[in-house]
Amino acid sequence: MSQYFGKAVHAAFVVPDIEKSIRRMLDSGIGPVYVMRRIRVAARYRGTRHDVLITAAFVYSGTMQYEFVQQHDDAPSAYREFLLRHPQGGFHHLAYFCDGFDAVLQEATAKGGLFDLVQEFITPDGTAYEIYVEPRNVADPLQVQLMVHGPMEPFFAQMEQAAANWDGSEPIRNALDMLPPAMRPPVE
After folding, report:
1. What is the model's pTM?
2. Which terminus of the chain has fewer Cβ atoms in its 10 Å neighbourhood, N or C?
3. Is residue 170 in a domain?
4. Do the domain assignments include residue 173?
């Protein structure tokens, strides 16, 4: 994927039990873990609107960020599709920042990569701010998450800085507290 999209921002795992994954990180001395619990995210999955209820957790080890996602409902999504193939969970996607989705996908195609759009996370007006694509004609694809430069970069930088100086206090933190109010998804 790096040949098409550059430097990955994080590696993400879709899991059936996020609390177990959080505990594993903390027990290994990796933290703090930033969690968004039971958020309803506006999304389109394979072209059709399906909002998903998820918990997402982020943790840094050095400069590497790991994300863990658990879906709590049966809405069609990239996460649900993955767990149907891998009920035990596992490595789901690599994330990259870009200047624009169309431009980066055109560049990838010019380099020989063919990708299909799987899921889009959208604003209230329907504009995609984050997308998942997967390589075409791959039986068990590793997905790619593309995020437009901007809103998430300060959020990630704050978490990375906190991890660099973490003394073991406050091992689990509310990630929603770090997002600007306009970017906070509804919690259920």
Report:
1. 0.93
2. C
3. no
4. no
CB atoms within 10 A of CB 169: 7
The three-class DSSP label of residue 184 is coil
Instruction: State pLDDT tens for residues 131-179.
Output: 999 999 999 999 999 999 887 888 899 999 999 999 999 999 999 988 8
Domain count, the chain: 1
Question: DSSP states of 42-108 as a string?
Answer: -EEETTEE--EEEEEEEEEETTEEEEEEEE-S----HHHHHHHH-TT-EEEEEEEEES-HHHHHHHH
**Spatial distance between the Cα atoms of 38 and 41, rounded to a whole number of angstroms:** 9
Quick check: is 19 in a domain?
yes
CA 81 to chain centre: 15
Strand partners, 119: 45, 132
Q: Are 51 and 43 in contact (CB under 8 A)?
A: yes
Assess if residue 75 is contained within a domain: yes
pLDDT in tens, 3-58: 889 899 999 999 999 999 999 999 999 999 999 999 999 999 999 999 999 999 99
Backbone angles phi, psi at 44, to 5 degrees: -120, 130
